[in-house]
């Protein structure tokens, strides 16, 4: 062999060696190029997706990396690879790593956006997804169940991601334990931003679930730490833990409605978590169920939730519970937690004929329970002698029955540099959370290139647009407006010949300067239709039904006939509405199925001569616990000659996963409301399954009774300080329970001419 050949073969060997040992980085610009790159990928290789939009891309990322040399799938520039349309990501194999992708403007054609498996037999292990964003990547049908992230396999990590705006049914993220290959998984979920998840209005709105009841006696060994849960309001459970030996540590829960629920599984550790409720309705803390749970060094401040949604809830269990019911609390250790200005601590909660197994062998010690006002904080539903209370510090609480184990002392708190409140007096330093607890900041989670959503009001954020009653001007102004704009009407009469579709938050009001007279009438079956993304605020003018078509079922405002992903808001202030009487069943507001209002507020308004109802919020009749509006508040308003009810509000079924609906009527009058023969409920106000009702300081005249139908939970209904003249007293019925009804009806005046009372 001559030296040249020798040299050449030597070089060839070097090149071969180099090719197999040194990783390659390949940039791909098409889905075909991507597939080829994946099929050839070796340990250490990096496949780079070119910046830009990748539409309808079902990414299957498979391969076998090694601990030292994972195979990576990266964005050319983090945050600049946008995956849209019918897209998703499946990862299967060992030591794979994905980073930098953004999923938006589309939804998954399967049930999952990011899955740590290809199929049932091919899972991901030792793999990582980091710095990805899933932003409002929702199926347009809000009741279609889908999941954003499902983790299977073992030893996977999900970190520094942002999941924002999940609006469909189905948990945002779940750890699955549904086979041997996925239990005892040792997954790590950390530094993620779980962004706002709006109220779903039914079960299936959890943000994170670990396990399911079926495998709940298996250990998961999942660690959930240093994540930030920002306004995760989907339903009663923010985190639903349904497996054993997990650690949930160092997370922050900011204004999130619901609780961290230890629903199934034993031996979990919940420590160093911080809950800031800021007094927001239904913000809760930790709910304890099952055996050997440790609840240590957690901080809860300003939590307003009650019942199962309280700041700290220890449940009763079911004796010999089936796997999907409530297992008895035993050997719980609850120590060194700080409960600051949080309204409700519930012990032996849920006690009833079925849930009769009280907590046993449990410890409750070294906790600080502080309240500014003299308040009763504890509700004790059953025998709690199985909880040993020792050396707790109680300040401000007026709970007299708490004896041994609670030292009552007036203490002063001071906010420390870490944002948490501690006793000023150093002698109390060993109570409550430790001084070195440092809650993770919003800025420390998620991808650092991703801007997190703020909490600005949706209304009045845009420009003011003046509108006159020239033909078509209002229609054009509504169509061309941007989100948050304010349309200001000149005085005059407006006849609207097309339905005004509201697809963004919009305010329509009279010019503030003059007390002008403005009347708006309309020639279609509705004046406004709120479609997906819309919200509407009306103030300072009159609406008349006098020009409406002569057919049944008109409405001033209706919601889209299609499923709406975005909850809407509606504000009616200082309005006058009349002559909705061209034909029968003319409603002020008529909603469609699969639409949810976050809130409807009516203030200082006058309604007269309406053949239908003021509000028809009664389209979810499947009894799945779904409903059409979370809050309905009416104040300082007057209703006369209304054929239907003021409101038909319906939430059916016995599901207990939600907080609403809420209804409030104060300082208002109803005169001849609900007497039309087509008013099926024969009620002036018809509330079916409403959870919180306040009817206070109103005047009812010549109207049928208020009907309150309690369906589930412990509904709170208060009817006080009203005057009923020629109007029967309210009728309350418990539909699913033989218990006496819980409504508070007192201090009402019944006038002498009240024949029906
Ligand atoms: Ca649930």
Question: What would your notes on this structure say?
Answer:
By secondary structure, the chain is mainly β. Helices cover 5% and strands 41% of the residues. It has three helices and 74 strands. The strands form seven sheets. Strands 1-2-5-8-13-16-19-22-25-28-31-34-37-40 form a 14-stranded parallel beta sheet, covered by helices on one side. A 14-stranded parallel beta sheet has the order 3-6-9-14-17-20-23-26-29-32-35-38-41-42, with no helix packed on it. Strands 4, 7, 10, 11, 12, 15, 18, 21, 24, 27, 30, 33, 36 and 39 form a 14-stranded mixed beta sheet that branches. Strand 1, helix 2 and strand 2 form a beta-alpha-beta unit. The N and C termini lie far apart (117 Å).
